[in-house]
Amino acid sequence: MDCNEADSTMNNSFGDSDTEYSEAIPTTSGEQNNLHSGNEKNVDVNSFRFNFPLRYDELVESKVYPPGLMWGIRRYDKIKDYTIQRCGPSRASCLICHCEMNGLRISKHMLIGHAMGQRHINASKSETVLEMLQFYHNFWLNQEPLIQTHQVYFRPYSIPTFRCALCLEIVHAEGVVSHIFSDTHKDYVIRNYNKRDRKEYYLIELQLQLYGIKTEKQNEDDKQNKEENNKTKKEAKEKIKKKQYTDSKIPPRRKSASSKELTAEHKIIRSIERPESTDVFDHIPNRMKEQRKYLTRKSLPDGSAVVSCSLCKIDLKNDLKIVRNHISLASPAHVDLNEIYKYYCEICNIWEQGEMGWSRHNFKSKRHLNMAESRKPNVTEYECTTCKTVIFGDELSLARHLPKDGRSKKERSNQLPDGVKLLFKSKQDLLAEGANLVAQAEEVLTIPDTRVCCEKLEEALREQFENCKVYPFGSRISGIGTKSSDLDVFVDTGDMYYGQRNQDPSDQVTLIRKAIKAFAKNRDYENQHAVSTARTPILKLHYVPLNLDCDLSFKHGLSVENTKFLKYCLELQPIAQPFILLVKKWSSYILLECVNTYAFAVMCIFYLQVNGFLLSVERLRNLHNSNNLTIINGWKAITYSLSLEEIKKHIKIYPRSVDELLKEFFEYFSKFDFNSYVVCPLLGRVVNRSLFETNSGQDLPKEMNDYLVQLEGDDPEVFKLKSFMCVQDPFDLSHNLTKAVQQGTVKNFQNMCKLSAKHLAFN
To answer: Most-buried pick from 24, 153, 677, 734 (CB within 10 A)?
Structure first.
């Protein structure tokens, strides 16, 4: 996310006063004496000072608690603390009724109307509610202004906890600041900023400032402030920069340079020359080497040591993070590296804003968990001294960096990523990699981690759900996973597997909240995060003893049946497992948006179905026993009654090697008409898109009758045809697995398929 390039329309709202709420506030003693905290006692003259409105940071108060509006509300609820919070132009929250108010525009009339309502009046008389409200405001009043800006996301929950409406998590007061700095909360704030309508919440730009992320307007302000910096700082900075360029024999960076210059002079070095060393000084990166001369280690009488900075006349703790932050952030006497370097983590595909963001990213305890195990030993931090870029990655990352400025976007789109070229270097290498991926996937299937984690999850959840049962599914179970794959789990709290109970979205959120309570005091689980807006709401968490990320769902068992089907296909057709694993690895290099591993696996299965190497879902159901079907939430799954050997009689075993199969797969989808057809594993053939729209779907194949029945139900869901790519779920026929794919993604996918097929044919 590059906030520097984002539109800064929110800037205008921060400094402007809201005229609707800016009327003068009456301050007569008679009116002040009407304010109380829920009872009608006479106000002592010595306590008058407590009756004035609470004072937050001026900018925060003007947006979140506009004085004119707050006075109008106080006239009805008679509470000295602010009871209604304006979160944004279209959002408000009542802090005592615990209700959210949304609309096209939150008006003064709407909020005062709420304050006059019976529910609000009743809540204002509850001592417990008022104590909770007072605790809430006391907490935020004692925070720094930038922290205060985040209160638009927090609601009183109980003493001493709050509920984060953004992350749907219950947070103890002592952990609120840590929660604000968590990756989950930060990511949500950044997403809100990147939305077209950034006015969903107030003060987002200031919230980003807390993370060291600068918006366009802030950069302009910084530029103006920079011109007013003192002469000493400028001279020190220029002197150090001049020496850096002299030592490295690289001319000073100009504002613009030709692509030939950039590609011809790239000089990449390791940031840290001795990573195995335990000495803090050896871990100061090369870009800070000119600052090392100011640092010396000084022993203390107690035998410990500190790092002394002669430039700033200060002693620092002998800690790498503290020393690096001092050089890059704390002292104006040191060179401002933020103005020289760009920072890119190739593993996470993230550009960080300056040394602060980079340091925070690097010192995360669980960073890069999803990286392939074989790749982890090879990654480190590099610096390109030519274009002043810090890169975290491996040699493959550097290969991607080198041609970046030398080729146009059009030229790059007509070339395969270097990772794909290495993957398809030769038939022998490809077959070996396929065998290696299969071995890893089989190891994941056999190690006890999944079983142990499921047992522990079940044990923890029984605090809230006495008879719960957990069912693992996903890539770790189907045979296409790695050790770094998440563990997907369906939690059946009772009679839920077949979709008979708790299927409403509100039921899902309630179950997730109860699950959060079950894990809250258990130190084996951390990083809990609810994703309630997903098609199937999930609870994400990390199981510490096995270092395993888990996704818990509470809807029904159809995902478990999907996994059974995928695993069954791998057992039926031996080449399917290396085939899908290689396509999965291929997809990790081309970085397609909104196409996940399961969607790619379904496309692989579909291609095998089309060519007779696997059976369609409908054919499998009929062979096993069409009269004894497993029905989940109205969708027919498969009851596996026949042996594998019996089913194998109805398919062809693929006769060639996996490289040939890959080439055929890429050729097929490079020419696939996604504008006209839907990938349908139910039938094992394409279905015309138009059949879903014309005649209310009545012209669809008869095998899709379940879809039409579902459309007539209480909660119908239409198959999403507006997507530029349609891949239908094998069982849930209303689910388009690629519904969020855009036209550019399809074009890129088909182009990569075409280039990959040519590359395989050539080799």
So the answer is: 153
